[in-house]
UniProtKB/TrEMBL annotation:
InterPro entries reported for this sequence: FAD-bd, FAD-dep_Monooxygenase_BioMet, FAD/NAD-bd_sf
Transmembrane spans: none
GO MF, one annotated term: FAD binding
Classification of source organism: Bacteria, Bacillati, Actinomycetota, Actinomycetes, Streptosporangiales
Organism: Planobispora longispora
Pfam families: FAD_binding_3
Name listed for the protein in its UniProt record: Monooxygenase
Stretches assigned to the FAD-binding domain: 3-369
Keyword terms, alphabetized: Monooxygenase, Oxidoreductase
Length: 417
């Protein structure tokens, strides 16, 4: 039986693990965190990702978790609708809609589909050899040991591995026919595979995410644009609303009371934003600087190693496609990898088809998301007014054209089995 090692137990890594397992592969997932407690936030699973999840038998279970959604769209900071979307129209055009749910729920669904013992927590990868599929790692690592393990991968060259700095933990070696690098935006494996690539760059925006107990607070799915800021509202099932926001601030400027900062920035925007922020708790607010890959990789694989999700094409969140594209990657990779009944001696040749299927598509989405990010960063009052006017006119005069702009994203279909 062919063996795959997946580095990283995020949504992309877990989806890849499930998809490969369903193809008959033995799968080991290595996760550096000590637990799988996911980030406390919401997630939008668009129709393209739902189709991908259908191929691993998870789509219908996820659809059942979505709250009932009304129409939504984009608003100004004062509440004027700039562009409207109809859930009925989206469903009619694409045969499905968008599921809004907690990230933790999707993680639980994926983990439940993996074989017992497939996930090895508290395990930091220290080296990957793309030629042989040899994976070196430290188990039961904490604190400085985790940093040392990451540094060991960052500072290696051709073999993407090497002697790790002295660190506490148990050294292990795994041999894999396929290594899936799903180790995130700042992927050490990507940096070692492609040392000449510039890596992620700061988008100019910081994001906040918060789950709000919002029983009695009216609201519908929408995203509001102001002068340099964005505030999004996603009602979830169970009387919870997921809110997200971005603003133009220097990188590394976090610290202090982030809920107070959100109230300062957005507390005077249209209803129900002030009420949602009033109902939020400071301990539930997450803040992260937004980085993305501004330059495409030369390939999404090297040897026996495939890059997936943020490790391959980190994007700004403006299209809501980050997790969706990672899910797409995962099912395409499993399809290309083929059945796992025997050793995958030709996996490097197969992975060339993975790059061919995914690199151009994901880069177009990265670029489009980055363009929207630039539009949201406009601060000049006259430029903001012009931007909003043009958006409203486009939505009013050519609604079909605006809706059709998403065809190449939502119209994607997974490869046939």
């Amino acid at each position: 039986m062919a063996h795959a090692v997946v580095v990283g137990a995020g949504i992309g890594g877990l989806t890849a693990a499930v998809a490969l397992q369903r193809r008959g592969w033995e799968v080991t997932v290595l996760e550096r965190a000590a637990s799988l407690e996911p980030v406390g936030s919401g997630l939008a699973i668009a129709v393209n990702a739902l189709r991908a999840l259908d191929t691993i038998g998870a789509g219908d279970e996820i659809r059942k978790l979505s709250a009932v959604q009304g129409d939504g769209g984009v608003r100004s900071a004062g509440g004027r609708w700039l562009a409207r979307t109809s859930t009925e129209a989206v469903s009619a055009q694409y045969g499905d809609s968008v599921v809004l749910l907690r990230r933790a729920q999707l993680v639980d669904i994926l983990v439940a589909r993996l074989a017992p013992g497939a996930i090895r927590l508290n395990t930091a990868v220290t080296g990957v050899d793309p030629a042989t599929g040899q994976v070196s790692a430290l188990e039961n690592t904490t604190g400085n040991a985790m940093k040392s393990a990451t540094d060991a991968v960052k500072h290696t060259t051709d073999a993407v591995g090497g002697a790790a700095p002295a660190a506490a933990g148990t050294a292990i070696e795994l041999r894999a026919d396929l290594v899936v690098a799903a180790d995130g935006i700042h992927s050490p494996i990507r940096g070692a595979l492609f040392p000449g690539h510039p890596g992620p760059v700061y988008s100019g925006t910081t994001s906040w995410r918060v789950l709000v107990p919002a029983e009695g607070v009216p609201g519908q799915a929408s995203e509001s644009w102001g002068a340099g800021g964005v505030f999004g509202i996603m009602p979830l099932a169970g009387g919870v609303t997921y809110c997200y926001a971005t603003d133009v601030v220097p990188a590394g400027a976090g610290g202090g009371d982030q809920l107070a900062e959100l109230r300062r920035l957005f507390g005077r925007w249209h209803a129900p934003i002030p009420a949602l922020l009033a109902a939020a708790s400071p301990e539930n607010v997450l803040r992260n600087d937004v980085y993305h890959l501004a330059t495409p990789l030369p390939a999404m694989h090297r040897g026996r190693v495939a890059l997936l999700g943020d490790a391959a094409h980190a994007m700004t969140p403006n299209l809501g496609q980050g997790a969706c594209q990672a899910i797409e990657d995962a099912v395409v990779l499993a399809h290309v990898a083929g059945p796992g009944e025997g050793p995958a001696d030709d996996i490097a040749a197969r992975l060339a088809h993975y790059t061919a299927a995914r690199l151009e598509r994901t880069w177009k989405i990265v670029s489009r998301s980055s363009s929207i990010n630039r539009a949201t960063k406009i601060r000049n009052p006259l430029a903001v007014r012009l931007r909003d006017t043009l958006m409203a006119l486009a939505s009013r005069l050519a609604p079909g054209r605006v809706a059709g702009a998403a065809d190449d994203i939502f119209g994607w279909r997974p490869p046939a089995a």
